[in-house]
Design a protein that fits this description.
Blueprint (H helix, E strand, L loop, with lengths): L1 H16 L21 H9 L18 H12 L20 H10 L17 H11 L23 H9 L18 H19 L2
């Protein structure tokens, strides 16, 4: 299992190093770059091409939508294969995210609910954690972690994936809480991705 995870992370690093130079803009150009706990992770996300800004703003406190999350994960893992998503009634071929959602469904990071993918909805933290867990092919874990006071708030369908991320050390919560039903901001997502990359590098010994 570790070898599989390591190969995935090496793929991410390869994709990042092959990004065009204009994607590796300096974070200093963003007028709203915060000077708090999120700054290092945001700067890394910008340098790695996972987050891009608009009009000189990185918008750290803005909630990620499901379509934006799909796009970033596709970008991180170099996903290119698509499948038909014609059965989903809330995604049109003219939408900017149509191809990205088709890639996400092919990657099985997004499965939707019934005939909807809800691309414009803000993505909740537990939804984001499930997407990341699927992308990393983490084994589901049913054993309840310790150290958090709101694990009972996690939806049943998301628990094992969230537990897998917690036990792997990829999400640490805040003040002893995971806040699974809350939305995930761009800054929070950048921190999760930073945790993942840091863990993989530490495990590989490089």
């Amino acid at each position: 299992m570790f070898k599989k995870h390591l190969s995935i992370m090496l793929s991410i690093i390869m994709v990042i190093t092959l990004l065009p130079l204009n994607a590796l803009s300096e974070s200093g150009g963003f007028i709203d770059m915060p000077n708090d706990w999120s700054k290092p992770a945001l700067e890394e996300a910008v340098k790695n091409g996972l987050l891009t800004g608009i009009n000189e703003k990185i918008m750290p406190k803005e909630n990620l939508t499901r379509a934006q999350m799909a796009t970033i994960i596709n970008r991180a893992f170099g996903s290119e294969r698509t499948v038909s998503i014609s059965k989903y009634t809330d995604v049109k071929t003219t939408d900017w995210f149509y191809q990205e959602m088709a890639k996400a469904v092919a990657m099985k990071t997004f499965q939707g609910s019934g005939d909807k993918l809800n691309p414009n909805n803000p993505i909740t933290r537990e939804e984001a954690f499930v997407v990341i867990s699927r992308a990393l092919n983490l084994e589901s874990i049913s054993r309840t972690p310790t150290g958090f006071t709101d694990l009972v708030d996690i939806s049943t369908w998301a628990k094992e994936s969230v537990y897998a991320l917690i036990n792997s050390g990829y999400i640490k919560g805040s003040n002893g809480k995971i806040n699974p039903k809350g939305y995930i901001t761009r800054a929070e997502f950048a921190q999760v991705m930073s945790n993942i990359i840091e863990k993989y590098i530490n495990k590989s010994g490089e």
